[in-house]
Backbone:
DNA sequence: ACTACCATACTACCATACAAGTATGGTAGT
DNA sequence: ACTACCATACTTGTATGGTAGTATGGTAGT
């Protein structure tokens, strides 16, 4: 028998893990919310074991804070961590776009162009939900095209810490047209092997994602980790 | 009562987790080794529960591959992942050293100089084990000095995938004197705010860590993940 | 009214039992 | 000799009970 990796349809643990992660990132479980293994196991109608193991994973990703014998809470947003996540993402994405401008697989360039065309349609249709997904996919294709799939995965992990801030900011004020222009310039840079243009545009592109931490901390102080120490 | 985070001395789960992780990174548990929850729980004289939760964490870090109902093995080294880990580390460390050359906390600069002096001593004494730790600490201080502690943590995670290759390479052939010279130049760059020198030296410094994957895959094929797909 | 104490109801942690899928070796049948 | 089948001994996944530490609210004493 061949090794069919994905044999297990989907374990209870994964269901609980993904559901909790979604609720946390969407702020349906706001930072600071107390949750217990028992509570979650009752809600999902499963035993505490898969819930516990989900907690272990979420704690490792920094989304839960487990205090033995005291309780578990959805972790507060750490503004220092958010800033560093932005820092890491910027420099990794720039390094990758430079790499993409040097060499890029032809078939992924086609996917990139197709993605751009779909973006244009979405803007006309004002389908911002789809546009959000296309934005994600656009960057994903860039990583794939220069053999940086694992780097993409790492960035996804890092971005977890950016997402909750961005969610607070309310994404409604995005300038989708501007976003599209930048994406087009990135595509152009890759196609024409223009490393400087790629790096420059990506730097500006990353600047768009800066959520104003100071403002958010003032508006939602209960969601942020205070750091009186030092 | 104040919130004393580190109240729990150390959980069984953490003991098992750290022990297994050490053994894997030191290749005492070579890539491909099959291990079962029961086997480990017997060895540590604990129940399967903390062992399982250790497995969950190690699997998330990519050090274990769990196949439901079939078994668990120490993950094979993924040469593509190793290359990308090198890529990510290089660009993050360079971004950080540039930041350090712009602004650096005075007290950390003192620590850095003290570390350098200790390195010199270790070379004279040929205490390479200590030198290895000082090397790690040197980089750590740089991250701390420009407020990039979280970035350091992320790099530590990424480096996991580099460590096993480096371990195979046998670290004996390190040119410690050269290493020291580079460290000194990095220190100098930070002190004199010479961004270009910092970036340049760090780039060379990272190049030292390149383990020759081709050679290692030929020498230890059973430790490497083959990728016939594509 | 206020404080010190304690019973009680939590919490996460660990051990154990059961369930379900998989690999393996032996055996019966050809 | 070879093949198909099946019992058995594994594996990980899930459920549940018990333990120890912690927060809380009520009560007795001042």
Residues:
């Amino acid at each position: 028998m061949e090794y069919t990796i994905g044999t297990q349809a989907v374990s209870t643990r994964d269901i609980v893990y993904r559901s909790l992660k979604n609720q946390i990132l969407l702020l349906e479980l706001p930072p600071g919310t107390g949750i217990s293994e028992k509570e979650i196991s009752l809600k999902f109608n499963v035993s505490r074991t898969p819930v516990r193991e989900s907690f272990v994973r979420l704690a490792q990703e920094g989304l839960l804070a487990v205090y033995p014998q005291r309780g578990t809470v959805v972790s507060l947003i750490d503004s220092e961590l958010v800033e560093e996540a932005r820092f890491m993402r910027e420099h990794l994405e720039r390094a990758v776009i430079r790499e993409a401008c040097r060499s890029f697989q032809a078939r992924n360039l086609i996917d990139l162009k197709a993605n751009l065309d779909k973006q244009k349609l979405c803007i006309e249709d004002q389908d911002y939900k789809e546009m959000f997904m296309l934005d994600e996919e656009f960057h994903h294709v860039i990583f794939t095209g220069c053999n940086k799939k694992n780097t993409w995965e790492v960035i996804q992990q890092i971005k977890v810490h950016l997402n909750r801030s961005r969610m607070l900011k309310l994404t409604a004020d995005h300038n989708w047209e501007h976003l599209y222009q930048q994406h087009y310039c990135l595509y152009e840079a890759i196609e024409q092997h223009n490393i400087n243009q790629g790096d420059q545009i990506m730097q500006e592109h990353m600047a768009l994602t800066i959520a104003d931490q100071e403002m958010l901390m003032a508006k939602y102080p209960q969601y942020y980790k205070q750091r009186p120490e030092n």
Q: What stands out?
A: The two ends of chain B are 59 Å apart (CA to CA).
